[in-house]
Sequence to fold (926 residues):
Amino acid sequence: MRVVVIGAGIMGAACALALAERGAEVVVVDRVGVAGETSSRCEGNLLVSDKAPGPEADLAIASNAMWRDLAERLDADRPAGQPATEFEAKGGIVVAFAGGEAALERFADAQRATGIRAEAMDAAALAIAEPFLSPEVARAIRYPDDAQVQPSNATQALLATALRHGARLVIAEVTGGLGRPGRLAGVRTTAGPIAADVVVDCAGPWSGEVAARLGARLDIRPRRGVILVTTPMPQRVFHKVYDSDYVGAVGSGDAALQTSTVVESTPGGTVLIGSSRERVGFDERTGVAPAAAMAAKAVRLFPFLEHTTLLRSYFGFRPYAPDHLPVIGPDPEVAGLVHATGHEGAGIGLAPATAELVAHAVLGTPTALDPRPFLPSRRGLRETA
Amino acid sequence: MIRITVDGEPVQGREGQTIAGVLVGAGRTAWRTAQTGGRGVFCGIGVCHDCLVSVNGVEGVRACRREAVDGDRVEREVRP
Amino acid sequence: MRHVAILGGGPAGLAAAQGALAAGARVSLIDEGDRLGGQFWRHHERLTDPRLQHAWHRFERLRGALAGGGAQVLVGASVWSAEASVDGVRLRAVVGDADGDGRSAIDVDADAVVVATGAHDLALPVPGWTLPGVTTAGAAQALAKRDGVAVGRRTVVSGSGPFLLPVAHSLALVGSHVVGVHETSRMPALAGGWLPRPWELAGKAGEFVGYVGALARHRIPYRTGSAVVRVLGRDRVEGVVVARLDADWRPMPGTEREVACDAVALGHGFTPRLEAALALGCAIDGDHRGRFVAVDDAQRTSVAGVFAAGEVTGIGGADAALAEGAVAGFVAAGGALDDPRLRGPVAARRRTHAFATRLERAHGIRPGWTSWLDDDTIVCRCEAVTRRAVAERADVPLRAMRLATRAGLGPCQGRTCGRAVEAIVAESGGAAASVGFDRRPVLAPVRIGELAALADTDPRT
Fold:
């Protein structure tokens, strides 16, 4: 079985490894190379805390568990030059200011029912866990399973491991499909045609455009997110700390700027402040509005940040589907095409489980996960396509 | 003449000098601890951020760009 | 009345301000330094030895023109954001003590902007260059001029370009013993750049010769085809290894010798400060030898209303900057390029551009320099990233390489190491140089609190 994987971001790298390990002959095609875009422009969150009960939460719980083994394996089996994943099971703490306590507790209660660990913290425990947090915080829930990787490095490690399992990387742009209408038999690229039994579209925010080039319809759009990075400093943030308004922003379809506070330290000593969400197409002019809004909210959470220095900011485009669920599985109209996209801001976390579902779709290998909610044929996707 | 303190030790300089100027003039070359050891002034014009110090409790001040003021409390920064 | 903002108060910016005033505009000139003059006329009223200044009368004349013309001058103003749109240009700055906490925010909205952000030293890595006592040539010059201090008692100057000469001269005047000036380029290259068509050099060759004479009077040896290839010391500089180099800047085996010193000043040319121009959307031209803001005859960039002048458009020295600035400011204010008042600057610019080309021919960096690095030589000073680490990740896209190695991710944001890292990536078979290293959306350090303060006032929030 020969499989072309389009895209060398987290999704393409994870799928390439899963497929190669299960015996497929894999060719990864990317126009710039590994982690050239979204996967090098995000935070590397492996979260369960932000997931409302539902199919995505189930996927996140499974994927979060898979990341622990995967990261250990990638880091243990690491030749010179391959970066560490920087996997860190630091846990998340979601906090609410006065007035938001009840909503946070209701949310956590519902999550516990689905198997997400969510532990209420009293003031003393919070002061020990995050001594620099604002005293105005009224309620805090700890999510011990929230973790992170350095997303670019994790992607590079995944792809390097896939290549060692026999996958190939071709740096080229996909220009069209091979085969006849309705039946894909490979891809045309700027480096020549590549025949394949199955093509997996892992092109992230560009996966709708790639699908169109392959004769399929897929409604995936970009959503811009900006992240701020401070200068390195002694560690003062010890977990991923979110304002509970984060939960509201993920599922929203509102085009206007939304920000919600996520603050965490990195192994490099910097503090990351996220995140914003704007539906502005592939517009790269971010302006200062998202940065200013995030800075203001971050200072409310951690007052010491007021005096720290902004080192840089970066932005990336996240792929989202109209119904805000990942799109994983066979294209309903074009045989030989499988999608793995639409993970919005959660792609790093959801990659291992997604790769298992892709292997299931391509090779028929077993999975305990339920693929149905994510199928490209689902109504929530087709109605708007 | 102005007097500042560097990690508690008094250092004299001329009025108008930058903090880096005061330190170099006093024969000091390293006043920050980086991963590889001491660092001091390198680019001298605010580009390289090697000369960072805390000044009166404010972190991350480029010593080559900040004019020293009599009584300034300059402290070493250690790169985590 | 047309409002022209000028970013940078060095020769190009000052000339642009004068030009814009002459064409009838309202002018705002913004500079992060605490005084006008830029690096070229860096000074302090009480501390600067006047013998260290060049063409000071021109500075005084320009400064006078600004005052007389009613220009708004903002010094100590760090511009951290620049945006261009169809409505014009918006610059956001914080004004106050350098890197202070809670500086006041100032927005400058203008019809046009002249980017005159200049350049900074390009110091190539050398084993041992992170030792205290190693500075850039520009640092040695700045500390001598602005603060009246010498970077060391016994200083070795090494690098390439005519700038090393005034640096050595300044060091001698502030009391350092300059052990030697090592010009990396060899005589044939220097002769090829400096000797033909002397009329194009408009006195530059004479200046060069004058400096060599001044060094001789201070008994400072000036060696060509020679460079510091290693810095020695435990906790600080104790000496250097100098070697003779071939035409590609490879050290020639057997020519190494140790020289005792307590300071080293390195300068291998200059790198333009492109981040503001990139933030404004300007197209960048160039290749591995250097990338600059692309401009036309009238100093217009690819973005309407955005002009550029001085070292951001090419390393040509102060005379070129003055001529380009005059053109940029005048046209940005609505003046015509064929206006008789621009005849002088337009002619001067033509001459100085020839000089820039020849400077590159004589002193341009040659690819063999990387052979004086060890595998474990630190290339990125901020994050202590070695040459080996960069070379091992050279095959992935630049962004992924930076995130994997942390090269260029530290506090200086690749300003110091960018060109060197690109060279190592290229020689290791990696991606061709791109503007990736120069794109810095946060143009200058700003406190999170200063940024947060804008959230309430920005209507888009």
User: Anything to note?
Assistant: Helices of chain B lie at 19-25. Strands of chain B lie at 2-6, 9-13, 32-34, 37-39, 52-55, 58-62, 73-75.
